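Trying the structure run again after the queue cleared.
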Amino acid sequence: MGLVIGLDAHAKTCVYKVKDDGGTVVGEGTIPSTPVDLSALAETYPGATVVVEASTVTEWIYDCLTDRGVRVFVCHPENMRRGGRKSDARDAGRLADAFRVGALTPAYVPPREVRALRQLARRVVFLSKESTRFKNRVHAILKRRGVRLLDDETEDDVRSIFALKHRDRLLAVGDPEIPLLVDLIDAVAEKRRASDVRLEAIAASDPDVANLATIPGFGALAAVTMYAEVGDVRRFPNAESLCAYFGLVPTESQSGETRVRGHITRRGPPNVRWLLNQASWQHVRLCPRSSVGKDYKRLARRLGKKRAITAVARRLVKVCYWILRERRPFTLNGFDQVRASTAPCAT
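Done. C-alpha cells:
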C-alpha cells in the first residue's frame, strides 16, 4: 500500500500524519493551507496516498494534488466515528488508519466540467430566490401602507406589479425602500438572463440534458441541475438510492417489530428539492395524464396536496434516473424497467 497521509484540512491550516504499511508514524505536522505547502508535502513523501474528508475546502486541495499526480482519496465525514478526545492530529491519524484497514468508502468527486455546471445551476437558483425575496419585501411594504395597484379595466389587482407598464405607479407610492428594491430586482434579472442563455445552450448541446428537458415541467434550469447534481448515474444502484441521495425518502425508526416512518430526511443539496418542488407543480398541471400526474390525483385526495407533491417529486427523481440510465427522452407511461434493471451498474 505504501505511505498514507491523513490530512485534516481547514481554511487556514492543514494537520497531517504520515504512516507506513505497519502503521508507524513517519511524519506529522501542521502546514498552511496553500497550494505551495501542499505540493511540498506531497514531494516530501513521493508515492503516498493523501486521505482527506469531504468539506468546503476539499475541492481545491483535490485539484491541486491530483494535477501533480498525487493520489487523493476523499471520504465522507460520516465514515469517521469519533470517540473520546478529539484533536486535529488525532483526526489525521484516524484517517490514515481507517484507510489502511479499508474502513473508508470513497466520496464521489465530479469532473471539473460537471462541477462547473453545478456552480452555474446553483447560482441561477440563488438568483431566483433572491429575486423572490426582494419582491416579497415590496409586497409587504404595499400591504403595510394599504396600497393596491388596480387594473383600470377590471378594477382588480394587476397581475404583476413589477411589469414595466406599472413601474411609475409602483415608484409613486413614496416609500424610500421601493426604488432600492426595484433596482435590485432589475439587477438580479439581468444576471439571471445571462445565465439562462448559457443554460439553454447546454440543454441544446448535451443529449442527456436534452432528454431530461423533455419531462413536462422541466426547463433548462431543472434539467441542467439534475444532470450536474447526479453526475455519473451509474454510481447509484437503483432509483430509490437516488431518491435517498436527494433526501426524498422518509426517516425511519425501528426497534424489534416496531417501525415508525416520519418526514423526509432532507439530506443532500436543498436547491434540488426546491427545484423539484417547482417542477412537480408544473408537471401535474401540464401533464395530468402521465402516470405521475395520475398518482398525484390519487394521493392528493388521501394525503393532501403538499404531501402528494412531495411524492410527485420523488417519482420525478425516479423518472430522471431511468432517463439518464437509458439515455432516452420522457415517455408518458414510463420505461420497461424490468429490462432496464438488467443494465450494468458501477459500484
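The longest helix spans residues 112-145. Worth checking whether this holds up in the mutant runs.
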